């Protein structure tokens, strides 16, 4: 039997397998927190509050054609709504970025600094201090939404030291979360807190399809008396890039784009970029081209998921009352500045992501150029539900006015990009010359990360400016500290800094 959202005993009960922890009387009282005048105009007057779906992919770039394979998604979401052409992540790494989506906060406020428990990725402290205040938790407890999660959550989710897969974060009525990091086969799901193992039979286990199937089941069996929020978080196109069998021959003629910084030595860049070898070896180029093709192949199953989901929403008459967001947790690079494959850098290819939305009141085929960050998703979704954002501690702001096409909105011109590099204390035996302190040194001992790949940037964008300013926490401060232009920054305790050219990345 394929995995279904339906528990073994039959249809899910109202409120899900996990019973609502809020008593009915109290619940009614709390719902007052979200009762509001729905602002979309008279056509929707009296209508139920809108549903929201958030589709989150893993490592899908915007700059190198990441959306190209998703033809149906383009037609069904972008062409029916709005594409944000300047959408950024405040940290180009899965766990910090996902924590920013869930909390609406910058990393310096949610304290998830890397992909490990020690760095607060799904740690006990995260569970205690941040998780109860994520936007899904507010949606469920304060606004009475049914909430459904399927897919990859935080990289360390399910770790034994942090409660194992029995831990179901507050905020979710239905919970189908992947244990640990992205996989396609041979994985464990937490099904409402119970471990369910999957093997490697395509028609039973292919994770992107399992996520599609449990999502459709949720739509078939959910309660019709409350609005719902779904977050579907695919492993694709993260490594190990295993495509569905029917897509393994796709894109045979596609190679990674040879854009202006492909296989170029980043001579003015910070240390980590300069240690990359230029030109890259032929085998590195072959490897990254292969990775590029396979990433696109895995996205074809995501495109199918989006189509099935939208058809099912339509079948149930929910489509015109549902906002559907599509985005990724960070970008990706394949050969830029001679770094073979990864994210973790402060350049556009890694920090810029696709962001599409359709929904009631959003006109078709629009592009919005305002500077957006994923910390805006939580506030936007709470705003849709009618929750007073002044009651939250979120750093982001609601995109609703932009989605409605309000023309005189005063918008921000800056977002922060913050990253604490990952490293290891021992030398990597395959690259002894590179360690200690570095990580991700593959292929050809080119390291994609290091403890000192630690930086804080301001990405600025307005009518008159398109800039990025960064400061690094590394040793190079010593070599430039006598430079008159930087003296001021040094005095303020800052380290090596640079203006990043937007043109060349
Ligand atoms: C959106 O634009 C595409 C062309 O990019 C066009 O084919 C489509 O009909 C448009 N959709 C709507 C709803 O206007
Ligand atoms: C982890 O989170 C806690 C609570 O937010 C914070 O006190 C601690 O400093 C964080 N750890 C790191 C390494 O940032
Ligand atoms: C899944 O696990 C089986 C048994 O350990 C192994 O033979 C197979 O190679 C694995 N498949 C994948 C795709 O990881
Ligand atoms: C995979 O599962 C399907 C459906 O249960 C079954 O028909 C098929 O035989 C299985 N394939 C393998 C290789 O076990
Ligand atoms: C998903 O559902 C379809 C239709 O019921 C089924 O054919 C397919 O095998 C299922 N896939 C997985 C991975 O469960
Ligand atoms: C790849 O092949 C497809 C059809 O198979 C074609 O439409 C496309 O233009 C080709 N792309 C390149 C880069 O040759
Ligand atoms: C690498 O590829 C280039 C271009 O395809 C070719 O000219 C060169 O001979 C190759 N080098 C090696 C060592 O194979
Ligand atoms: C959605 O469509 C139905 C049927 O056409 C209509 O009754 C309802 O008012 C629409 N809802 C919205 C929010 O437009
Ligand atoms: C939220 O705070 C702002 C600034 O203090 C204020 O202008 C606005 O009216 C407040 N909104 C609500 C719903 O109270
Ligand atoms: C935007 O325009 C509307 C309608 O003209 C007006 O009510 C509102 O105050 C304006 N907002 C700003 C920020 O200028
Ligand atoms: C993650 O961050 C923590 C806290 O700063 C640090 O102790 C740990 O070494 C980091 N992990 C990696 C792999 O860099
Ligand atoms: C960064 O760390 C690496 C490895 O620990 C070291 O070799 C390198 O010199 C450091 N670079 C800077 C600029 O601090």
Automatic annotation (TrEMBL):
Chief localisation class: other
Role played: Hydrolyzes 6-sulfate groups in N-acetyl-d-glucosaminide units of heparin sulfate and keratan sulfate.
Give the UniProt family note: Belongs to the sulfatase family.
Q: Recount the PTM note.
A: The conversion to 3-oxoalanine (also known as C-formylglycine, FGly), of a serine or cysteine residue in prokaryotes and of a cysteine residue in eukaryotes, is critical for catalytic activity.
Q: Which residues carry this modification: 3-oxoalanine (Cys)?
A: 94
The entry's keywords = Calcium, Glycoprotein, Hydrolase, Lysosome, Metal-binding, Phosphoprotein, Signal
Q: Tell me the first and last residues of the signal peptide.
A: none
The GO terms this record gives for MF are: glycosaminoglycan binding; metal ion binding; N-acetylglucosamine-6-sulfatase activity
**Would you kindly state one Gene Ontology biological process term found in this protein's UniProt entry?**
heparan sulfate proteoglycan catabolic process
**Entry's Gene Ontology cellular component terms:** lysosome
Q: Which residues form the Sulfatase N-terminal domain?
A: 50-387
Q: Which InterPro entries match?
A: Alkaline_phosphatase_core_sf (IPR017850), GlcNAc_6-SO4ase (IPR012251), Sulfatase_CS (IPR024607), Sulfatase_N (IPR000917)
The reactions it catalyses are: Hydrolysis of the 6-sulfate groups of the N-acetyl-D-glucosamine 6-sulfate units of heparan sulfate and keratan sulfate
Protein's name according to its UniProt entry:
N-acetylglucosamine-6-sulfatase
Please provide an example of a Pfam family that matches this protein in its UniProt record: Sulfatase
**Top EC category:** hydrolase
Which EC number(s) does the record attach to this protein? Answer: 3.1.6.14
Q: State the needed cofactors, names only.
A: Ca(2+)
* Compartments (UniProt record): Lysosome
PROSITE patterns registered for this protein in UniProt: SULFATASE_1, SULFATASE_2
Superkingdom of origin: Eukaryota
């Amino acid at each position: 039997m394929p995995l279904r959202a339906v528990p073994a005993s039959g249809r899910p009960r109202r409120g899900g397998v996990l019973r609502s922890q809020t008593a009915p009387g109290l619940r009614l009282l709390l719902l007052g927190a979200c009762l509001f005048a729905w602002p979309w105009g008279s056509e929707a007057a009296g209508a139920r509050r809108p549903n929201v779906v958030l589709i989150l992919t893993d490592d899908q770039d915007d700059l190198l054609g990441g959306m190209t394979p998703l033809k149906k998604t383009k037609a069904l979401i972008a062409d029916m709504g709005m594409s944000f052409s300047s959408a950024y992540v405040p940290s180009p790494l899965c766990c910090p970025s996902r924590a920013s989506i869930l909390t609406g906060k910058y990393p310096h406020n949610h304290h998830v600094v890397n992909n490990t428990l020690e760095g607060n990725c799904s740690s006990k402290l995260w569970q205690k201090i941040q998780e109860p205040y994520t936007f899904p938790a507010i949606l469920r407890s304060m606004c009475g939404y049914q909430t459904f999660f399927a897919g990859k959550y935080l990289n360390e989710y399910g770790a034994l030291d942090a409660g194992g897969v029995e831990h179901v974060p507050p905020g979710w009525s239905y919970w189908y979360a992947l244990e640990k990091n992205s996989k396609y086969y041979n994985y464990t799901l937490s099904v409402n807190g119970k471990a369910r193992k999957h093997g490697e039979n395509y028609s039973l286990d292919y994770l992107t399809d399992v996520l599609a199937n449990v999502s459709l089941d949720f739509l078939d069996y959910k309660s019709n008396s409350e609005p719902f929020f779904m977050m579907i978080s695919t492993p694709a196109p993260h490594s190990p890039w295993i495509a569905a069998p029917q897509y393994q021959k796709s894109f045979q003629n596609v190679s990674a784009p040879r854009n202006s910084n492909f296989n170029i030595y980043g001579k003015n860049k910070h240390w980590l970029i300069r240690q990359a070898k230029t030109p890259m070896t032929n085998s590195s180029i072959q490897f990254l081209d292969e990775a590029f093709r396979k990433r696109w192949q895995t996205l074809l199953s995501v495109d199918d998921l989006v189509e099935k989901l939208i058809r099912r929403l339509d079948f149930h008459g929910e489509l015109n009352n549902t906002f559907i967001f599509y985005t990724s947790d960070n970008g990706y690079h394949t050969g830029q500045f001679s770094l073979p494959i990864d994210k973790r850098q402060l350049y556009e290819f890694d920090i810029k992501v696709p962001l599409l939305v359709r929904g009631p009141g959003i006109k078709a085929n629009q592009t919005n150029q305002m500077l957006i960050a994923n910390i805006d998703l939580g506030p936007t979704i709470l705003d849709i539900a009618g929750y007073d954002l002044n009651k939250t501690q979120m750093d982001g702001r609601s995109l609703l006015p932009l989605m409605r096409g309000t023309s005189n909105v005063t918008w921000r011109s800056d977002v922060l990009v913050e990253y604490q590099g990952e490293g290891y204390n021992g030398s990597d035996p395959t690259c002894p010359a590179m360690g200690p302190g570095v990580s991700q040194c593959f292929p050809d001992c080119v390291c994609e990360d290091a403890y000192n790949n630690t930086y804080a940037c301001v990405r600025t964008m307005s009518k008159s400016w398109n800039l990025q300013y960064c400061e690094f926490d590394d040793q190079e401060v010593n070599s430039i500290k006598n430079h008159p232009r930087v003296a001021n920054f040094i005095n303020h305790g800052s380290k090596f800094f640079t203006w990043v050219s937007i043109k060349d990345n």
